[in-house]
Specification:
By secondary structure, this protein is an all-alpha fold. Among the domains are: about 60 residues; about 70 residues; about 100 residues. The chain has 11 helices and no strands. Helix 5 packs antiparallel against helix 11 and helix 6 runs antiparallel to helix 8.
């Protein structure tokens, strides 16, 4: 609620004076208002820019704080990783030190064992000469007991290889003697006793397949032919068929001049076993280098086949052919004496022992 104040009459001259005085400032106000407006606009713009700058500064500050937090987290992770790496490195260094310690101990133990072995082990040359002696002994046994020239040559060759490793001038005489014995063995004709033995064993297994001579049957072409013509009448036909049956009960066949023995089942069994034993005896004679017994057993085997078996059948013909080939082969070979090299090695070793 407003109250209007009535001016006093006595105050009018003062009002006029004031109006006269304020007449000039109204023109100045009209000139100052644009400046004030511009100042206000500038202040608003400055305020807006200040607000904008402050907003950017706050966003930057927030981003900076966020980055600081991330950096702090990364730093903690790196510190944890660094701690783990340091622990691993310390553990690895500990293990390496332990391995170095074990390696040093192992080297020391190996050196001690080598020193002990050198103290206890005999001379290497002496060990080699002992091996050479054993090889030459094996060669003599193979030649004398089994007549195995190939095995004896292999053993002597190994002995010569070991002598080459020693390579002492004192062993030249021994190597010459060994070379002479090897030349004697190489000059022996090669008889493949293993192949002959296997063939005899195979023949012994096929004895049961040989057909006996008494088991030969006449061919059907020699048998009485059946009646192709019959006279009329029932009784005539019956009598003629009975007569043909009676004639077929007995067959007469010319077997040649060979006298075929008749054997009972037990005799047939023992005949086959006897032939097997003859073949196996020939095999043993072969291994023993007994040429006389070898040929005798083969000759007896061929006689048994020709006398009791069907020598025209395929199994018997094949067996007889193989037996003839084996009978003609020569197995009675005179084997040389190769004990000179063995005696030379023994003399050398005895001389070395006496020197010590």
């Amino acid at each position: 609620m407003s109250t209007e104040i009535q001016p006093d009459v006595t105050d009018k001259p003062e009002v006029t004076d004031k109006l006269e005085i304020t007449g000039k400032p109204q023109g100045l106000r009209s000139r100052i208002n644009p400046l004030l407006f511009a100042a206000m606009v500038a202040a608003v713009i400055a305020a807006w820019q200040w607000y904008e700058a402050r907003s950017q500064i706050e966003s930057l500050q927030q981003e900076f704080e966020k980055r600081l937090v991330e950096i702090d987290v990364s730093y903690k992770e790196l510190r944890n990783i660094s701690t783990k790496v340091r622990e691993k490195r310390e553990e690895t260094e500990t293990r390496i030190k332990l391995l170095e310690t074990n390696l040093t101990e192992s080297i020391n133990r190996q050196a001690a064992l080598e020193e002990l072995y050198q103290d206890l082990a005999p001379d290497r040359d002496e060990v080699t000469m002992e091996e050479v002696e054993q090889l030459l002994l094996i060669a003599n046994q193979q030649l004398q007991l089994a007549s195995n020239v190939k095995s004896a040559l292999i053993a002597m060759h190994e002995a010569d290889v070991r002598l080459q490793r020693i390579n002492h001038p004192q062993l030249s005489t021994l190597r010459k003697t060994l070379a002479k014995d090897m030349d004697l063995l190489k000059a022996v004709p090669n008889v493949d006793t293993m192949e002959i033995s296997l063939r005899l064993e195979s023949l012994a297994k096929t004895v049961d397949t040989l057909p006996l001579a008494m088991e030969i049957r006449p061919s059907k072409s020699n048998a009485v032919s059946s009646v192709t013509w019959l006279p009329e009448g029932m009784w005539s036909k019956f009598l003629l068929s009975v007569w043909n049956d009676i004639k077929q009960l007995v067959r007469i066949q010319n077997m040649g001049e060979r006298d075929i023995p008749l054997l009972s089942p037990s005799q047939s069994y023992f005949l086959r076993e006897n032939l097997k034993l003859r073949l196996l005896s020939a095999q043993h004679s072969l291994l023993a280098r007994d040429a006389v017994s070898f040929k005798t057993n083969l000759k007896t085997s061929m006689d048994l086949i020709n006398q009791y078996y069907d020598n025209k059948s395929a199994p018997a013909t094949s067996m007889l052919e193989i037996l003839h080939q084996l009978h003609d082969s020569e197995i009675g070979i005179e084997l040389p004496n190769i004990s000179a090299s063995y005696d030379e090695v023994r003399k050398y070793r005895l001389a070395r022992i006496q020197e010590k």
